[in-house]
Specification:
Elements (H helix, E strand, L loop, with lengths): L2 H15 L6 H10 L13 H21 L5 E4 L6 E4 L12 H7 L1 H6 L2 H27 L11 H14 L8 H16 L4
Antiparallel strand pairs: 1-2
Helix pairs in contact: 1-3, 6-8, 7-8
Length: 194
């Protein structure tokens, strides 16, 4: 079995060890520490190398998500928080119309994207693609999964205070989870949702 095929299995192990979830950055660092090919030698200051690292990780996460259907599990995938969840009864099959899922499962996107295209993405279009996803992920991190209409500023702040209090290390909580909650709130404030 090559590393490309075994990467989802490694990610599943790590996510089972961290039920509160891990950020993309934390997963990349774990892969670098474990000397995984591509990740170990990646120069994250180089935009093309960063793109390939990010894409490879998200491709593996979406492949893992497909494998988890039989186990009634799913991944909540975002750059801020990637976590393993039970698959909801109302969502027995994968949503095939998810444009991000389609993008990351298409290896042609990885193989044909060159340095100039990465530069263009970083100049704005790539961030716009992920802005909505990041906001959704930040809301999910605060407990608002699939809520329509979007929660009010007051509801977001109330959920933040409740979760920050519950997960504060001084109260026996997890520092890593508190950091994720704080990052989510900071992102929502930046986008003027909170």
């Amino acid at each position: 079995m090559n590393h490309h095929d075994s990467l989802p299995g490694f990610l599943l192990q790590q996510l089972r060890l961290q039920p509160e979830g891990l950020s993309e950055y934390q997963l990349i660092n774990l892969l670098r520490q474990q000397q995984w090919p591509l990740f170990a030698e990646a120069d994250l200051r180089d935009p093309l190398s960063l793109f390939r690292t990010h894409f490879t990780l998200f491709n593996a996460l979406y492949r893992l998500d497909e494998q988890l259907v039989a186990d009634q599990l799913q991944l909540d995938i975002s750059p801020l928080c990637i976590r393993l969840l039970p698959r909801s009864a109302s969502q027995p099959e994968l949503t095939r119309t998810d444009p991000l899922r389609s993008y990351y499962l298409d290896l042609q996107q990885l193989n044909e994207t060159d340095r100039e295209q990465v530069a263009a993405m970083l100049d704005g279009s790539f961030s716009r693609i992920h802005e909505k996803d990041e906001q959704t992920a930040a809301l999910a991190c605060l407990g608002f999964v699939g809520v329509q209409p979007l929660p009010t500023t007051g509801e977001i702040r109330q959920a933040y205070r409740r979760l920050a209090s519950r997960h504060h290390p001084d109260r026996g909580g997890c520092n890593q989870r508190l950091q994720q909650i704080n990052q989510a709130m900071a992102l929502l404030k930046r986008h003027q949702l909170a």
